[in-house]
Amino acid sequence: MHISPNDNKQYRYLTLDNKLKVLLVHDINAPRSAAALSVKVGHFDDPADRQGMAHFLEHMLFLGTKKYPKVGEFQTFINHSGGSNNAWTGTENTTFFFEVSPHNFEEGLDRFGQFFTAPLFNEEAVDKERQAVDSEYKLKLKDDVRRLYQVHKETINPAHPFTKFSVGDLTTLDDRNNLSVREELLAFYHTHYSANLMGLVLLGPQSLDELENYAQTYFSHINNTDEPKPVITAPLVTEKENAQFIQIEPIKEVRKLTLSFSLPSVDEFYQQKPLSYLAHLLGNEGPGSLMSLLKSRGLINTLAAGGGINGSNFREYTVSLNLTPKGLNNVDAIVTSVFQYIALIEQQGLDAWRYKEKQSVLELAFRYQEKSRPLDTVSYLVMNLLHYAPEDVIYGDYMMTDYNEPLLRDLLGYLRPDNMRLVLVAQGQHYDKIAQWYHTPYSVTPFTAEQLSRWQQVKLDPELLLPEPNPYICEQLDPHALAPGSELPPQLIQDLPGFRLWYKQEHDFRVPKGVVYVAIDSPHAVNSPRNIVKTRLCVELLLEAINEKAYPAEIAGMSYNLYAHQGGVTLQLSGFSEKQPLLMKLILDRFANRTFNQDRFDNIKAQMLRNWRNAAQDKPISQLFNELTGLLQPNNPPYPALIEALESVEVDELPAFVEAMFAELHIDTFIYGNWLKDDALALAEILKNAFRVTDQLYGESQRPLVRLAQSGTRTYEIICNHADSAILMYYQSRQTTPRKIAIYTLANHLMSTTFFHELRTKQQLGYMVGTANLPLNRHPGLIFYIQSPVAGPQYLSEAIDDFANAFALVLLELNEAQWQASKQGLIAQISEPDTNLRSRAQRYWVSIGNKDNEFNQRSKVVHELTALSRADMVRFIVDIVKPRTSNRLVMHCKGQAHANLEPLDIGQPIESITEFQQQAR
């Protein structure tokens, strides 16, 4: 097995007697143990009259087994063990995974293994979980991704299993002819859940022998029917479905054009990655690229190449473009340009040096790959286990073994007009069909002879160019030697008026990578919603101006981001550190020579307005979260306020605004990773010179938070254009002490599983049901939320209140061992060591922002958690959460399905946001 030199884990591959493929991963430093099992069954295998069966079965396996019959018990065990779990059903795979504290792993595997040997399919659970599947379907009725996916299904070869409805609902999973669906569920399970079609990955600090013993003990009993997976013979697309123009009406205001080419499966070529090579050229964003040309002509905003669905007998290859309004009127011209670029690649773009460049970038990524969370690691390895040769399971995603020009030419041969389906997603086009399940309007029209002829006989466009050799590919790949003091937390090495520099050389993760954060606080940037939107406009304009020149740096393993926040803006660089100063210089040069072009401004303003207006079509619960943070954080207005402020902003206001913004500022910089102190100081000088403005004032921005204090229950209703109702209850801590953080975090940890079990699994109030820990501006907060297709806000609020009233008793019924185990599970989560350089950088940066200058907030919270007694928690529930006495904010919206139900009748409505924000501060 080929392993990265930076990977200290040990691996063992084996096949059990029942033909189950197993990969064992010993990681001595793993904070948690994790397992993933994938079975080669998905919605392609659903019986024609039982669509959604594979998905329904995935849900059911969690709800009780012979040895552990109690519904919801697995979830409770995972929660108390400081872990997490999930599952997903795809087209040809269903995958289950979980992680827990290492000492709970064996019990977790005992419970998990039972899913695949002795599920109960309890009759009552079958009935209730069918409702959950139906809720999941209804939740996405207005989700454009699902709506477009359904049209995709209806416009390919009707004989291909991709056409099936993957989710299921009450009609496809109903009881029929006096027989429960349970019988068919059992038959489906026994037919498809066979060990020879499964892969299992176990990871933990346990030895390989110990992990092998677990695999044998808990998974060797899985039945093996020894039946091979049936081969799909129907092609995804036949001549009949090709050369078609498909128009689809979205709910959100989007304009997306996708050229979709149908290829056979290319899975066997994973070692050469020919399509990655083509995507590298077609999706290039540098000077002379297809994206650059179409953007300069005002036709598109973004371009992506190489996506598309794939399966055991097909691979779609797509070029997707987000269009401007002008682009929408020039679709044929855009398609012509795409074919011109494909012709350019065919004639001049097939070069061994280009392949080697891409290969070396992937090789660097593999050599210096950093650890991911145990759960993420097992999730991707289990897919590799089923798709790659045993020796390539670790390396397969990064391999590019040899440049194979005939193969590249063969695949390019599929990228032709008569093998294309052209999909336009935009409002107000021509539609004459309605898709099933999601009711999406669409139409299908064959290409005209004139279109086909124009696209087949393109001439090269002299403005289109292939990318130059990449100047950002790194050569110095050995990390710098460690300097004295590198093991210390970040140090403040410069503290000047308006400029602070924090620095740390990373001593633990020895990779040639670094992270640079530059937080620019400016009170002027955030002192009104109008200024907040101007700041965001400037951020987008600068990112736009940088993109073309900085694109090669992204290809070479560096990334940059610029984002607006409650204090101003932050610039972040990450990835290989050697060429980061070059990238920083490029960004600062672009900033210094900023220009405010009317066309680009108009385009970006229109994109921002569209995105924010589209947010009004998000699912109700997302809208409630957005309105909640907008209500409580004046520097973070909700979408409607941003839209109102942005509509009247003009380009000529921006130059003076930027000058004013930089007349009063404060910069916090953190340089971390594979950096020497002198180099960090040199970079700091570049930054200071770039932002030094004459007669500057120095001041950090205030980040106000609305305090609920003794307000009682306050309610705020928003109007959501959706059938479902939703509610969100928020409790806020007055203080930001480690003790308060401990109490609120533990309350969420203790309640989450019980809340989910009671209100979703038992009462079936909806698919999106949960609790959350939401700190705002360092103040801990506790949230309960439900989005429901079956009940209105009044009923949902009563259900949450009943839960809160009963929860103190639930706590009192825990025995001491359960109480301590729950606390330990949370402590393990909080104390979990950083996985990689990036996650550690993020943690240090949050500490700097929170003024945790000793970087020991976590240990203080753990200390407080250890000391918390059950009496403390019962007191918190009774004093803070109990509905009669609580100070809380209740956000709600009434769904169209519940228009005739009584309105929410609790607390005092917020009539004026301005008044509420002024009173509550």
TrEMBL record:
GO terms for biological process: proteolysis. Its cofactor is Zn(2+). One of its GO terms (molecular function) is metalloendopeptidase activity. PROSITE patterns: INSULINASE. Residues 746-845 form the Coenzyme PQQ synthesis protein F-like C-terminal lobe domain. Residues 182-360 form the Peptidase M16 C-terminal domain. One of its GO terms (cellular component) is cytoplasm. InterPro entries: Metalloenz_LuxS/M16, Pept_M16_N, Pept_M16_Zn_BS, Peptidase_M16, Peptidase_M16_C, Peptidase_M16_M, PqqF-like_C_4. SUPFAM superfamilies: LuxS/MPP-like metallohydrolase (SSF63411). Gene3D superfamilies: Metalloenzyme, LuxS/M16 peptidase-like. It is an enzyme of class 3 (hydrolase). Belongs to the peptidase M16 family. Endopeptidase that degrades small peptides of less than 7 kDa, such as glucagon and insulin. This is Protease 3. The lineage of its organism: Bacteria, Pseudomonadati, Pseudomonadota, Gammaproteobacteria, Vibrionales.
